[in-house]
Write a structure and sequence with these properties.
Elements lengths: L11 H13 L3 H8 L3 H9 L1
Helix pairs in contact: 1-2, 2-3
Length: 48
C-alpha cells in the first residue's frame, strides 16, 4: 500500500457543512460525525 492509502479529499459539500456547523457552534466531534469524517480532518479544515 502507498503512503496515502485510505486518504481522500473532502468534497465541496463536506467543506460547506463543516463551515456552516462551525458558525452554529457544535463540537468538533459532532461536525465530524455529520460530515462522515474524522475529528482531525475537521480540525485541519477549520485551521485553513
Amino acid at each position: 500500500m502507498g503512503i496515502n492509502a485510505g486518504y481522500h479529499h473532502l468534497k465541496l459539500e463536506q467543506r460547506g457543512l463543516i463551515m456552516g456547523l462551525a458558525q452554529e457552534g457544535p463540537s468538533l466531534s459532532h461536525r465530524a460525525e455529520r460530515c462522515h469524517t474524522s475529528v482531525s480532518t475537521v480540525s485541519r479544515e477549520l485551521s485553513r
